[in-house]
Amino acid sequence: MEGNNAKSDKTDNFESKGNDIPTEKKQRHREKKVIADPIKQIEFYFSDPNLQKDRFLRQKITESENGSIEIGTIANFNRMKQLCGDFSLVVKAMKRCSSIEVIDEKWLKLSKPLPEPKNVDLQTIYVEGLPSNAEHKWLKSLFSSCGNVVYVSLPLHKLNKKIKGFAFVEFENESEADAALKMFADSSIDQSSF
């Protein structure tokens, strides 16, 4: 009888261990999926094209003695709250970003020097007549056939938060912006891809 009980105990232990592993993998997979968008957003915030324009972040970085920003400042951005309301997940996302370093899970610092503001007018095109459901991702995808899209500005109305119907698309260089202008000069935006 003891032999049977011992066998039963071993089987129970094996089964419970077997069940734990997939659960742990599922949790890790779910966490990776949850923090994927916050990682992209953080990388955008601290990308050179954004830091060259973002007066708020530039001011926070330059006002600090050592160039660091409280993680809570970024975690409280409206977009970050939409993507991930859990502060610990925001910290995990930040730890996976190459453009910043996390210090004591309370502060972050740029991994490289703050880029100087520059005039990107010749690398930027103005697009108007956009459908009301246009998104950053769609515009980036649409114009990436002309070159490397590094920044998309899609202005919103303050009151209703709907897009204003125009955007600014910045390319890595002037020749890519010229190619986009030539490509779309005589055509309208294909709204069927929504």
Write the layout of secondary structure elements.
Blueprint: H1 2-45, H2 48-51, H3 55-63, E1 68-70, H4 71-75, H5 78-83, H6 87-95, E2 100-103, E3 107-110, E4 124-128, H7 136-143, E5 149-153, E6 166-171, H8 174-184
Antiparallel strand pairs: 1-3, 2-3, 4-6, 5-6
Helix pairs in contact: 1-6
Describe the protein's architecture and organization.
- It is a single chain.
- The protein folds into two domains: 112 residues, Orthogonal Bundle (Arc Repressor Mutant, subunit A), CATH 1.10.10; 69 residues, RRM (RNA recognition motif) domain (Alpha-Beta Plaits).
- It is 49% helix and 14% strand.
- The relative contact order is 0.10.
- α1 crosses α6.
- It is α+β, with helices and mostly antiparallel strands.
- It is built from eight helices and six strands.
- The strands form two sheets. The protein has a three-stranded antiparallel beta sheet. It has a three-stranded antiparallel beta sheet with strand order 4-6-5, with helices on one face.
List keywords for this structure.
single chain, 194 residues, alpha+beta, Arc Repressor Mutant, subunit A, Alpha-Beta Plaits, 2 domains, three-stranded antiparallel β-sheet, disordered N terminus
